[in-house]
Each structure stands twice: as structure tokens, then as C-alpha cells.
Amino acid sequence: MVLFEKVGIVGSGNYGTAIAQCFSRKAHEVLLLSDANETVQLINELHINPKSLPGVLLNSNVRCTGAFEQLSDCEVIFLAVPAASVASVCRQIINSRISVPIVLCSKGFDGENGRLLSELVEEILTNDYAIFSGPSFASEIAPGLPAGVNIASKNSELALRISSSLSSEMFKIKMLDDHIGLQVAGALKNVLAIGCGIFYGLKLGNSAVAQLITEGLREISALSVALGGNRETILELGGVGDVVLTCTSRQSRNVLFGENLAGAVSEHGRTDRLAEGSFSAKSIPALSRRTNMPIQLFSAIYRIIHVSSPPITLLRTLASS
Predict the structure, then answer these.
(1) 141-181: per-residue pLDDT in tens?
(2) What DSSP string runs through 205-231?
(3) Which residues contact 222 (CB under 8 A, 6 or more apart)?
(4) Number of domains in the chain
(5) How does pLDDT run across 271-287, given as a tens digit for each residue?
(6) In a domain, 19, yes or no
(7) How many helices (H) and strands (E) does the chain have?
(8) What is the pTM of this model?
(9) Which residues are known catalytic residues?
């Protein structure tokens, strides 16, 4: 098997920069794309990206560019951008005539229509693609702390090549035969984390949060199966692993957002920034219609975020589930 030697990453935010550092331990060269000239200069000259990963010295084989066309020499390209940006990046891939495999690190849905990001990619591109998801905070994987994620693709040879090329002792990439379930779990865990933040903000206790996570996992699994995924996927790194990490850590922007919705100000301060889970939640009504499922907990979280239902609605929904 020929291993990937030059890896491209679209997105120089905290996660894009962190996986660039991870992959640089195995690949010969990693090329980050950034739309900020200052970031390009700092990475290429000083090997730092202080805005996204303060305190981390990047390996010398991590480079940065502002020109999308330079990614054409890469053998595989990871998209580490918000879900809302995936369509525009795919169009740039077409315009740049890039035909190499694409790996989606983005977690969410295609707008408010309940479509998976893989459906969007298939509509725009003919490139092979894979889904990359799992419990991996950028602040932990960049300095080399241990973590594991899943990779799934309709093309099993692509998933195997990514796993073989870019896994390391401290950053394991485990193959999974379910690109649908991996996407559903990755998108909805952010919504569930907002719900957990609401419970933290209401000071309902860790036991209530554990109950919410358990019932949320049931809904994620049922929805995944309804969309064509495998029931067992919820037990994988990109399932329960990612849910537990995101829902129980104060590093999670989604948890902080939920706390703020409940009227709380955490030790990290108050934020009015929309977390990724807020955008994913907009697809809940469409997902419910598409699958003919009520998905009660996620629908309650949607209403709290976007219809101004009182935060206590989530507790009432959980109690009746």
C-alpha cells in the first residue's frame, strides 16, 4: 500500500492546525490553507499559530498557504471548516480541478434541510471521500496527548490508506464501516452538548446530565438507523466517545453555549457566540420529518435555541421520555 506523504488541510483554526501537527508526525509534508496572511506568515516563519493554538510549536514540515490552487499537489485533503462552509469549499475544489480524495472533519448538516454533509459532497463532487470524527480536543492532540478517532468511507481502501498513513502511537485512526452513523453522531453530539450545558446552567446535577446523555444516545442511535446507519456505531469512538467528551467538558463551546441559554455565567465567562451545535439544531425539524421520528429530546433543544422555549422544557421532556 502506498502511504500518503503530502496532506492538505483546508482550515487553519484550532482543529485544522491540531490535526496538521498530528499528521506531520507521519506525513512528509502537511499544507494548511488559511485566508489570513498573518497566519500564513507566522506558521511558515515561526512555526506558530497563536490565535488558534497558543503555546504550540508546530513541526517544520507543517506549511501554510493562502492559495487554494497549491493544494493540487496534495494526495488527500481534509476539510476542517464549519459545516456551513463545506459547499463553498467543494466548489473551490471543482474550480481548482482537484481530484484527490476529500476527508470531511466538519460536523453538522447541509443547512436546515436535514441532509448529511456526504449527500452534499456527492451532489457537488465526484471525488472519493471519507468521514473523520471522534473525541479529540485540539488543545490535547496538538501537543501529543493520546486520542483516537474513526474514519469511514464507501471506499474501504481509502479509509484503510488514511488509517495506515496517518495513525500514530498517540493518535489512532480506527476504520469504521458506517459513514452515515458516524456523521449523525458527530453532528448531534454538539446539539446534545448544548442540552447538557442547559442542565449545568440550571444546576440540575451530574446525575441529570448522565440521564440526558443516555437518552440522547438512544435518539442518536435510532435516528442513525432510520437514515441507513448501523446500530453499533453509537458504541464507537465517534459515537459514545465523542458524546461523552463533548457533553461533559467545560472546554466544549457547545456546553458553554447551553449554560448561557440557561442564564448561567460559567467560570469561562459569558458568550453570545453561536456554537456549531446551534446550527446543527436547525436541521432537527427536517430530520424528524424525513425519518418520521419525533426525536423528542433534540426537538426540545431545538425549540429552546431557536423558538425561545424556556430551558426547563428540556427537563420536562426528559422526565416524560
Answers:
(1) 999 999 999 999 999 999 999 999 999 999 999 999 999 99
(2) -HHHHHHHHHHHHHHHHHHHHHTT--G
(3) 293, 295
(4) 2
(5) 445 689 999 999 999 99
(6) yes
(7) 14, 10
(8) 0.94
(9) 189
